[in-house]
Amino acid sequence: MTGPLGYVETQRVVLFTEDDPLVLRGGGRLDHVEVAYETYGELSPARDNAVFVCHALTGDAHAAGLHLGAKKRGWWDNLIGPGKPVDTDRFFVVSANLLGGCSGTTGPLSTNPATGAAYGLDFPMLHMSDLVAVHRRLLASLGVARLHAAVGGSLGGMQVLQWVIDAPDEIDRAVVVAASSRLTPENIAFSSVAREAIMSDPDFHEGRYAEKGVQPRLGQKVARMMAHITYVSAASLETKFGRRRTGSGDDWTMGPDFEVEHYLQHQGETFLDRFDALSYLYLTRLLDYFDPFADPWTADRIRSTATRFQLTSFDSDWRFDTGQSARMARELAACGVAVDHVELPSPWGHDSFLLEPPGYHDRLRAFLVG
């Protein structure tokens, strides 16, 4: 029977310590790594039904279900649950906050054991492989050695790709939605402007704002407002807002007046309460440098995989357009990897991967059980 998950709880576990540190791809190390995660469904006796969900840039571990006392369900609740495409009656689903995040997993606002203060900009630069290493360790702690599938959209889809490269024998099915194997110059430019807005805020204090009890709110708000424009389509904004105003006639003002302006103001304000500016800097920079097929080592590693890939893009997504998914499909196929790529129609732009465009959920469901 199809239905929503009930109440769920975010759990936390320490996976790396000073005696067993996380050695980073760039050569640094983290002596304390804690991870926030949630699980849904039951692990089978054969331990062969695990599905790992990789979240997008500003996501968290709460992918589905409802926290006690909360009103908002998990960010992929329409996809995960009993009878849903990621069926928790069939699969044991794991969702975890990524390294560098700010929702329970170690990141730049975490305490640096060496100083007793927050890392700030002393937090090391991250590689996508570092995110994978942490989540692989999490699965090992849960008794999972192999995944039935790894599923991710946007940044999460890129993490899925890196996971197969780093561990080509550990995943049966890889689902990559609205993602890319490398950012376009335009995408890098968007992220650069967002970071500049944050770091130019007088309250940024070279990343030490937490010690001063402030937050670079204005810069972070502007960064989110700009980014949100790239997540939706022109058609969806036209349909939802048009040129409707909250004022009337010749009552013109420099303040927000058009409904679309108020919408972006709301998106920026709500972002301040749930995400940290430093995590935004680190994770957007991680995406800028992500380019796995530029490394000849990648082809050698992934050529041995039996993982099957399903790539899905959306015709109205201009942030990670279909051409980027098609390029990834060609790169995988050139390495002899089984890959299927389809573009689906959707009016909602990049955010389509979080919604229910026609054919999307059925396509994913069939792949997971086929």
TrEMBL record:
Compartments it resides in? Cytoplasm
* Keyword terms of this UniProt record: Acyltransferase, Amino-acid biosynthesis, Cytoplasm, Methionine biosynthesis, Transferase
Q: Where is this site: Important for acyl-CoA specificity?
A: 319
Gene Ontology biological process terms, A to Z: homoserine metabolic process; methionine biosynthetic process
EC number(s) per entry:
2.3.1.46
Q: Which GO terms describe its molecular function?
A: homoserine O-acetyltransferase activity; homoserine O-succinyltransferase activity
Q: SUPFAM superfamilies, from UniProt?
A: alpha/beta-Hydrolases
> Where does this protein hold substrate?
224, 351
Which GO cellular component terms are attached? Answer: cytoplasm
Q: What chemistry does it catalyse, as a reaction equation?
A: L-homoserine + succinyl-CoA = O-succinyl-L-homoserine + CoA
Residue span, AB hydrolase-1 domain: 50-357
Q: Which domain of life is it from?
A: Bacteria
Major localization listed first in the record, in broad terms: cytoplasm
Q: Which InterPro entries match?
A: AB_hydrolase_1, AB_hydrolase_fold, HAT_MetX-like
HAMAP family, per database record: MetX_acyltransf (MF_00296)
Tell me the function of this protein: Transfers a succinyl group from succinyl-CoA to L-homoserine, forming succinyl-L-homoserine.
Q: Please report which protein family the annotation says this sequence is part of.
A: Belongs to the AB hydrolase superfamily. MetX family.
Q: How does it assemble?
A: Homodimer.
Q: What is this protein called?
A: Homoserine O-succinyltransferase
